[in-house]
Amino acid sequence: MKTTSTGATARRMSPEERDHSILEGAIGLARESGLEALTVRAVASRVGVTPALIAHYRPGMDTFVADVFGLIVAAEREEVIAAFGATGDLREALLRLIETLLDADRDDVTLIWVQAWALGARNDALAARVRQEMDGWQSALEQIFARAAAAGDIAAGRADTAAWLLLAMVDGMNAHSLVKWAPRDRADLARRALSAVLDSAAPAAIPVDSRPADSRPEPT
Amino acid sequence: MKTTSTGATARRMSPEERDHSILEGAIGLARESGLEALTVRAVASRVGVTPALIAHYRPGMDTFVADVFGLIVAAEREEVIAAFGATGDLREALLRLIETLLDADRDDVTLIWVQAWALGARNDALAARVRQEMDGWQSALEQIFARAAAAGDIAAGRADTAAWLLLAMVDGMNAHSLVKWAPRDRADLARRALSAVLDSAAPAAIPVDSRPADSRPEPT
DNA sequence: TCGTCTATTGAACATGCGATCAACAGGTGT
DNA sequence: ACACCTGTTGATCGCATGTTCAATAGACGA
Lengths: 220, 220
Prior knowledge:
The structure is a homodimer.
Chain A: H1 15-33, H2 40-47, H3 51-57, H4 61-83, H5 90-102, H6 107-120, H7 124-151, H8 159-177, H9 186-201, H10 212-215
Helix pairs in contact in A: 1-2, 1-4, 2-3, 4-6, 4-7, 5-9, 6-7, 6-8, 7-8, 8-9
The structure holds a DNA duplex.
């Protein structure tokens, strides 16, 4: 495939402008085709510029991929969290949040997340960025759980654990959806995931007394 | 890099032998370096033959990757399920099963799974195989849950839902571990994941008013 | 208007990938 | 011992990847 441009030299931009335009193109490309599609030539073609210029602005694809990943998922997280209705029944709002996270419309971001976990095993810069963004999700969810518990909308429990469990569940289900392994409708999944997380986050609901050896060690 | 062989022609084998040796090499390679490492040349070097021979026995890398994936994860599943102690307290056994699945020793298989979900988005043969192996896990877990419920070791609940939730949680946590995002010790995670799944699978444990639609037949 | 600065290019290099095909060679049966 | 059969090779094609660097061209200040 040839470059989108007609062979003419691209418009001269300030370094900041060009950097921004490159990032824009890369973000769009990753959204459409995943992180694997982020090649020097593909981004160059998208932006309408020579591959050499991409390499000039972004020496080292590893950190470039990490940056693009971070920008995409951070923007999405802020959007989702911002849309979280802070008013009304928080349990209802939580359910809608989970439904949103499981929505098929977000398959593009899901692919990016799953590719990031896989690539992160061999790309330290990306792995670091993935951890950072996951920390962002973890603390955002933890905050929501703590708020809901304080408001009495859900049973009080360990908000951090609930956040970890919910993240794992949502990420696992989304990963499964990439190969179209969706056993039942997602609204039902969301409801069950939420109650699973909320119930387990309340230690009192767990019958520990009946299991003598198991429940004793509780390191934290 | 050069082929492992000293340039001498490889020993002549029967088609079945050679096919087996190629699969063996590919399986070992994938276990060590993931599915992305499965290139014609890498497998050829590993097996000690020419790339052309690999291409001859396995025309089309897509189905080859799918086969290797299937063999690896099917073997692992059978091993894990077989090690599941059918005697004694089934809840205890379930906990050990989850601990096994979350064990860091299985990071190699985890990488393969996560790569499979990512690659499956663009490799239909692989995606089909992934679905097949996930069905295997789903039914194995469902069977275990049903058995445990019948034995009275856990609260009776919908075994299929419990299996789905557990699979999602375990897969999500393992994906997270690929980038070393492990908030707490895995034994604790396993315990909480198990109680989350078991509690939610027992309808009686869920606040009744919040699930009127539950008793209605679920759409496929 | 001219000259300087630098954003941008074009071309090339080294490496890797999957795939193809005529030619070779080692085992097998006669 | 010979010839057939076929597993195996070597060479090569076409394409894609990241990276480098001298040369170019467009914008801006003097």
